[in-house]
Amino acid sequence: MTDIQEFDARALKVTQAVVDRVAADRLDRPTPCGDWTLGQLLAHMTGQNHGFAFAAGGELHGREVWRDRPVGDDPGEEFAASAAAVVAAFGAEGVPEREFWLPEVRGGQWFPAVQAVGFHLVDYVVHGWDVAASIGVGIEFDADVLAAALTVAEAVPTGASREREGAAFAPALDVPAEASVLDRILLLLGRDPNWSAPGRTG
């Protein structure tokens, strides 16, 4: 297993611990992720895990394997199944030497495994924080995981593509010199680290 695969698995474990705290009656809560409710965000996260698991096989496939998968009455269990699937797929023999077909990135392209897993890593650091912010709890990733995710976040293209409807990330926000590594990742990818759900004081 490469470092990036290990970092990704550890990020998913932290995110899983937060998703496990989501009750089915909280799925209508707002999130920092655009106009998505928590249920919509978790459906996206679960679907993306399955999509990346398919992509790790190194075969061409359509967008249907990336479809959102609603989490139903047990968000933690359904997300856990998708997380286990993608960790197993990323850890399979020969994966580091493959290319991944990602139909949703730059109009559909092949990417080296290390780069593709890096995309997944930064997604699940940011989305893990999204879920935590939505339900008003903290989240902590290991420093080396965040350092790897920051490298990916710094390489995400800026410009007009971030302003289009359906863009993966909003335009970057200003990053203060004193910002923590997690806050730097969030700001670079258009998130306000101080976001809180309407009606909450923090």
UniProtKB/TrEMBL annotation:
Annotated SUPFAM superfamilies: DinB/YfiT-like putative metalloenzymes
Coiled coil: none
Residues of the signal peptide: none
InterPro entries assigned to the protein according to its UniProt record, in alphabetical order: CHP03086, DinB/YfiT-like, Maleyloyr_isom, MDMPI_metal-binding
An MF annotation (GO) of this entry: metal ion binding
Limits of the Mycothiol-dependent maleylpyruvate isomerase metal-binding domain: 15-132
Protein name: Mycothiol-dependent maleylpyruvate isomerase metal-binding domain-containing protein
Organism encoding this protein: Kitasatospora griseola (Streptomyces griseolosporeus)
